[in-house]
Fold:
Amino acid sequence: MTLRQDGNVEANEQSEPEATERGFGTGLRAQLRKRLHPEGEEPQQPAPAEEPDPQYVSYDFEQPATVELNGANPEVEDLRAQLEAAQKREISLRAAFAEQVEAYERKLGEEHEVAHEQTKLDERSARLSSTESQIRERERRMAQRSRKRSQQPSLLPPSSRRSSRHATPS
Structure:
């Protein structure tokens, strides 16, 4: 029972079909139902599908090969021989691989040493080139000085030039 604003008590709210839902989107579900099923019939729920009875399948397995504990089984002996051959190949391959790794490391070591020596030689070459250019520049300046001295008239007479060179300061 609900109490209405006018004071009347209403026994069942569902007596008013439009007023069952209140708030935002009121009546949208009912409108959708009417559009999907215009004849007024309710959608029928599909009946649950019955699961089929499980079928039993019989599997026929081959019997395992008989193993002779005291005797020799040819399959086992063949597999053992293959395993031994594979182990021997593995040992020889590991040895060959170790040799290759060692040779590679030696080669890398030699290449490193060669590169180091090359760097040293390049540095020496650069210093030598620098020294050569300094010597050439010094020779050029000395040649210019000697040309200037030979072109300048001498202020001292030739006899005094000789004595001034050998003269001792007083």
About this structure: The first helix runs from residue 28 to 36. The chain is about 55% helix and 0% strand. Helices lie at 28-36, 74-151, 158-166.
